[in-house]
Design goal:
Blueprint (H helix, E strand, L loop, with lengths): L1 H10 L1 H9 L13 H15 L5 E5 H8 L3 H8 L9 E2 L5 H8 L9 H5 L1 H7 L3 E3 L7 E3 L12 H4 E18 L2 E20 L4 H19 L3 H30 L4
Antiparallel strand pairs: 1-2, 3-4, 5-6
Helix pairs in contact: 3-10, 8-10
């Protein structure tokens, strides 16, 4: 029993950590039945994410089949890091070089949406800002001191983050006496668009929604198929339940 309670508490740790950080995520509408959105998201991912990040648990031909993209179009427009459509989606950049240049190897993104959640990814891609003190020249309010440079700044533009100082009051015990401590913490307030990009805010929102949609698909490519089969299974069980009840009544009619 104690092990079960401990497992539940450990499962809540990511939620607690987000709450402690005061992380507010923007909601994004995910629709895996929107094939056009998934196709646009795949194009963004292959062109801008796959240069550094792997998606090694997904193959190009599986993606093309699920998204309604012919093998010819996959080879023509999406196959940059390899010449075999049956290969897994691996980054063009060697991991050793990435670690040397950025200080850490970029993570595989196949399951990132299942781990972080779509709202986290959507908010993260809206939260980059210029930071001359960082290694790459960029920082992120959702993931502070992230090593990743902002590859889509040409679309969104350059943001400036505005912070404010907040006083925090805490009560501690020193030598058996309650002591009040007042500290200041620098917290994020809002963004200011310092330099517009090639997209309007609405266009950029839609592009990131498509990218997030694709990454959710990538985390579980068979989800729509699983849901479709699940509906048939429930219908079968409902019909079987009716037949089982009728059969039970037939068997027990002489007893009652």
């Amino acid at each position: 029993m104690n092990k079960i309670i401990l497992s539940l508490l450990l499962g809540l740790l990511p939620i607690v950590s987000h709450a402690e950080q005061g992380l507010k995520l923007d909601h994004v509408r995910i629709d895996l039945s929107d094939q056009a959105s998934l196709q646009r998201g795949a194009r963004i991912f292959v062109n801008y994410c796959l240069s550094c990040h792997n998606a090694a648990y997904l193959r190009y031909n599986r993606m093309g089949h699920d998204l309604g993209i012919s093998n010819q179009l996959v080879k023509q427009d999406l196959l940059f890091a390899t010449n075999k459509i049956g290969d897994r989606m691996r980054a063009a950049m060697p991991a050793a070089d990435a670690k040397k240049w950025f200080g850490v190897a970029p993570p595989d993104l196949t399951l990132e949406a299942r781990y972080r959640g779509p709202d986290w990814i959507y908010t993260y891609m809206h939260s980059f800002y210029r930071d001359p003190k960082s290694f790459s020249g960029w920082n992120n309010t959702v993931f502070p001191h992230v090593a990743m440079p902002f590859v889509l700044y040409g679309w969104q533009g350059e943001q400036r983050a505005v912070f404010r100082n907040v006083k925090l009051v805490s009560h501690v015990m020193e030598n058996g006496k309650a002591v009040t401590e007042v500290t200041e913490e620098r917290v994020f307030s809002h963004f200011v668009l310092a330099k517009p990009g090639t997209m309007t805010p609405k266009q950029y929102d839609l592009a990131i929604r498509d990218l997030t949609n694709f990454m959710v698909y990538m985390g579980e490519p068979a989800k729509l198929e699983r849901i479709r089969i699940g509906v048939y299974v429930l219908i079968f069980l409902a019909v079987f339940l009716v037949l089982a009840i009728l059969l039970k009544k037939e068997y027990w009619k002489d007893v009652h």
